[in-house]
Specification:
The protein is an alpha/beta fold. The chain contains twelve helices and eleven strands. It starts with 7 loop residues before the first strand and ends with a helix.
């Protein structure tokens, strides 16, 4: 395929240090950059009040470049369920995730008039997706061979098309490699970049607790939706039987999030007149399982009572109250625990 090369590029901007540096280097070479930031239900950047999306937006504003935000939708989640190239340490399909994002970027290139792509990748930094052979695989399967420029590690690779065409000056690119962050931090200091709260990115799919919950979801809930995915990040998770999962809030913030995520028709169980957590279920209950749910709520109550009234609330519909008389034993509860 013959490409028309110009000085317009799309940059993957995560909000982390590496992509920030790569974008700055290209701007300094006069490249017209449009930033693309991807979000998902599994982003996990610090600080809590200013995650990657906000950080990426601030960087784009500081650099005076346009930015587009793309949410990884259910097509992405279906890929996570069965990634062709497997998982990393948890449920993180790093190779396929990269291919997914770059394919989305390729689709945007004609619309934005961009002729190549910029990333902040550093050779050998990430154990799964940034080895030489893996990077080549990602390029091939994304359809962007010869068009992905990695300014931080460029001298470890053959010159890309924009370098050969003289659009980018290869002599001004770098040869970073490995997992040390010191070269990036030194470069950030040189550029006067000091605010990078998410220096290495963040993905909850690498978290062992979230990974366990996601495996359970894929195994038992074929019709999962975005609410199910968001609930993975909250509360304690228990599977009482193959057809019933219970999520119990850990604290007030969890309880509020669970109630906010409850859709019409969702079933909540709440303490009635005593201190305790909110619970939401996914699946079907009977009298026996409802008593177990009530006993779990009682287990996490701060109050020592003879009876624990439990309110069952079907969101947007009816409410009722039943009573349990004891707490579920800790050893029994552990047999139900997903994470």
């Amino acid at each position: 395929m013959k490409y028309f090369m110009n000085r317009k590029a799309i940059a993957l901007l995560s909000g982390g240090l590496d992509s920030t540096l790569a974008v700055r280097m290209m701007i300094d070479q006069g490249i017209d950059v449009t930033a693309i930031h991807f979000t998902s239900a599994f982003c996990n950047c610090t600080p809590k009040k200013a995650g990657c999306r906000l950080q990426a937006g601030q960087i784009a504003e500081e650099f005076n470049i346009p930015i587009r935000v793309i949410h990884k939708g259910m097509d992405y989640i279906k890929m996570v369920e069965r990634p062709p190239h497997g998982y990393g340490s948890g449920m993180n399909p790093c190779i396929d995730c990269r291919i997914y994002m770059l394919r989305k970027v390729k689709e945007l290139m004609p619309q934005l008039g961009a002729s190549f792509v910029i990333t902040g990748e550093v050779l050998g930094q990430r154990p799964m997706s940034q080895h030489r052979n893996t990077l080549r695989l990602i390029e091939r399967e994304s359809g962007l061979e010869d068009l992905i420029l990695r300014p931080l590690s460029a001298h470890h690779f053959d010159p890309t098309f924009p370098e050969r065409e003289g659009i980018v000056n290869r002599e001004k690119l770098l040869a970073m490699s490995g997992r040390s962050r010191k070269p990036q931090i030194d470069l950030a200091e040189k550029f006067g970049i000091r605010d990078y709260p998410c220096p290495a990115g963040g993905c909850l799919l690498t978290d062992s607790e979230i990974a366990a919950r996601l495996r359970d979801l894929f195994a038992h809930v074929p019709d999962y939706d975005l609410t199910d995915l968001n609930l993975l990040k909250n509360g304690r998770h228990f599977r009482l039987n193959p057809a019933l999962k219970v999520i119990v809030g850990r604290d007030r913030e969890d309880n509020e999030k669970i109630r906010m995520l409850a859709k019409p028709g969702s079933i909540l169980y709440l303490p009635s007149g005593f201190r305790g957590p909110t619970a939401i279920i996914r699946g079907t209950t009977d009298k026996h399982s409802e008593m177990a749910i009530g006993r779990i709520i009682a287990r996490y109550s701060q109050d020592q009572l003879i009876e624990y009234p439990i309110q069952k609330r079907i969101v947007g519909s009816e409410e009722s109250v039943f009573t349990v008389h004891d707490r579920i034993p800790a050893d029994v509860l552990d047999t139900y625990r997903i994470s």
